Amino acid sequence: MTTTESHAPELAEPQMLGFLAQLGIDVEFIRAEGDTLFYRDGAGEDVPVLDVAGGYGALILGHNHPEIVDAARDFFAAGRPVLAQASRQSDPTLVARLLNDILRREFGDPEPYYAVFANSGAEGVEVAMKHAEFARVLRVQDLLTEIETHLAAVVEAVDSGAARVPEEVLRRLGAEPGDGPGILADRVRAAVAQQAAQPPVFLTFAGSFHGKLAGSIQLTHNAGFRVPFAGLAASARFVAFEQPGAVAEAVEAEGVDVPDLLVEGGEIRLVQRPFPTVAAFVLEVIQGEGGIRMVSAPIAAEVRAAADAAGIPVVVDEIQSGMGRTGAFFASSHIGLRADYFVLAKGLGGGIAKTAVTLIRESCYRPDFELLHSSTFARDGFSTALALRTLRVLEADGGAVYRLAARAGERLRTTLEKVRADFPDVVAEVRGRGLMLGVEFRDQSTSPLPPLREATANGILGYLFSGYLFRAHRIRTFPTASAVSTLRLEPSVYFGDEAVAELDGALRALCSLLRTGDPRLFETA
Ligand code: F0G
Question: pTM here?
Answer without folding.
Answer: 0.97
